[in-house]
Amino acid sequence: MGWTMSSLVRRTNLLVALKTVEGVDQVWKYGADAVTLDLRDVHTEALDQKARKWIRISIRFAAFGGAEVFAGVSGQRLDQELEAAVWPGVAGVAIYGAESGVDVIRVSDKLEALERNRGISSGSLEVIPVLETALGVWNVREIITAGHRVKQVALDEAALCSDLSIVPQEEYDPLVYARGRVVIEATAVGVQPLDAPHPLGTLSSELSEADLLGEGTRAKDLGFKGAIFTNRAWVEPFNAAFSPTQEQVDYYTEVRRVFAEGVARGTAAIPFQGRMVDVPVDEWAKAILERAAQCRARDQEKLQALEKAKAA
User: Fold this and answer.
1) Interatomic CA distance for residues 122 and 114, integer angstroms
2) Distance between CA atoms of residues 33 and 44, nearest Å
3) pTM for the whole thing?
4) How do strand 126-131 and strand 34-38 relate by DSSP bridges?
5) Do residues 110 and 103 make contact, with C-beta atoms less than 8 angstroms apart?
6) Nearest alpha carbon to residue 106 among 141, 76, 69, 151
7) pLDDT at 1
8) CA count, 13 A, side-chain hemisphere, 4
């Protein structure tokens, strides 16, 4: 059975600045589906061959809680960053500032060579393009169709605001088009769109868990399947926001039961709680329940990994 967009559960991707091992030795406790170790601000000397051991240790630390581990890289020192960060245990790379399909192809070619040289399964490493500029958003279709390694694409709102020389205001959202463009283009080709929210600078910095749940739900309702962010307090509410709620599970379980009973009686549409349940509604209910089961399974995987790490 092959991979499909709906089967991938990567709701939260915690971006961690990779400056010292101490900076990542606790990230596995937060429950993120993925952790991206950001190499973009690492001193060049720390990427040299003799100094790479600490990066491999950081990869192991980040994975303790069951998170997939990615490396965050950019185009300026791309080859050096990839050589330093791609080892067994890494799921792929997030390439910041991608603006064309050529950027993805260049990374993919390098990953293919690293897979051969470092005992990594051929074709297994992913590429997550992170769009930071107007050109990147404009070329999103070319970027996400530039190879089989792209399963997710992210929109970095803060970087895009900088590129556009704008400051978001609470009463006016200038990023509606960019979000919609990325969501539509990605979904159309089976790639998961991810939000990388701007630092909510127009809102209070002291956001409650309910506020964060609301922000995550807003992103989900726009069509995003997850988010990349730096604040560890966002992990739990964003995991919840991008998962079906228990109320939805209960409701759609009943929808499927009622519909099945109606079909058994030879009825194609059944009234239920003020609406008609037919085949499209039943298919939607089936998708919601399948997603809920996938999210529960992923959470159970992380819980087991966390318990194992704590016992070690």
Assistant:
1) 9
2) 29
3) 0.91
4) unpaired
5) no
6) 76
7) 36
8) 7
